[in-house]
Amino acid sequence: MSQKSNLPKKENNFYETERLLIRPVSVDDADIIFQLYNMPNFIKFIGNKNINSLSDAENYIKSKFLPQLEKLGFGNYLIVLKEGDQKIGSVGIFEREGLDVADIGFSVLEKFEGKGFMFEAAQKVKSIGMEDFGLNKISAITSKDNFSSQKLIERLGLKFQKYVTLPNEDEELMYYETE
């Protein structure tokens, strides 16, 4: 990836928006990762990550999220409602095989969809990546039929560039990037 940052890592930073607290995902968040990754729309649009238990979710966090946070200082963030201190989703910037530009991804529990939380969180994490970690560009990928994600990605200011297929995958995805 050509977007490596020489800025100091900020893996312990907590961030906030008007309604949300945003912090790096930890092993203690296995419960919400288990819920998110087993939602029908997550499996339909993102794929089945074979997280069938809390133990699987803990191992996924340890093997996928924590190494990137340790290496780069940014990665997957938990989204918590300030009101009620409730975990509602995650948003992150990821180094992904097959993409030259770090990409932003997000998921939210279904009962919190359509309330603007994901835009609020994704906008904040996009600014963290660009301002705190010096990323020049951010990308996003989504399924051709995931219209709600396409709309959110476009609201974040990313523009459709092309179709891509990631290594070891069959589905052609829509690829967006900041300008």
Features:
about 180 residues; about 30% helix; Aminopeptidase; globular; five-stranded antiparallel β-sheet; disordered N terminus; three-stranded antiparallel β-sheet; alpha+beta; about 25% strand
Give the count of helical stretches: 5
Helix content: 25-40%
Q: What kind of sheet is the major sheet?
A: 5 strands, antiparallel
Q: Examine the secondary-structure arrangement and name the CATH architecture of the domain at 15-135.
A: 3-Layer(aba) Sandwich
CATH fold naming of the domain at 15-135: Aminopeptidase
Indicate the low-confidence ranges by residue numbers: 1-11
Q: Write the H/E string, N to C.
A: EEHHHEEEHEHEE
CATH superfamily of the domain at 15-135: Gcn5-related N-acetyltransferase (GNAT)
Q: In terms of structural class, how would the helical and strand content be classed? A: alpha+beta
Give the percentage of residues in beta strands.
15-25%
Overall mean pLDDT stands at: 92
Q: Note the gap between the termini.
A: 17 Å
The dominant shape is globular
Q: Provide the gyration radius in Å.
A: 15 Å
- CATH class of the domain at 15-135, named Alpha Beta
Strand order of the largest sheet: 1-2-3-4-5
Quick one: how many beta strands?
Answer: 8
Task: Walk me through what this model shows.
- The structure is a single chain.
- The two termini are 17 Å apart.
- This protein is 32% helix and 24% strand.
- The chain contains five helices and eight strands, in the order ββαααβββαβαββ.
- Strand 1 and strand 2 form a beta hairpin.
- Strands 1-2-3-4-5 form a five-stranded antiparallel β-sheet, sandwiched between helices. A three-stranded antiparallel β-sheet has the order 6-8-7, covered by helices on one side.
- The chain has a domain of 121 residues: Aminopeptidase, CATH 3.40.630.30.
- By secondary structure, the chain is α+β, with helices and mostly antiparallel strands.
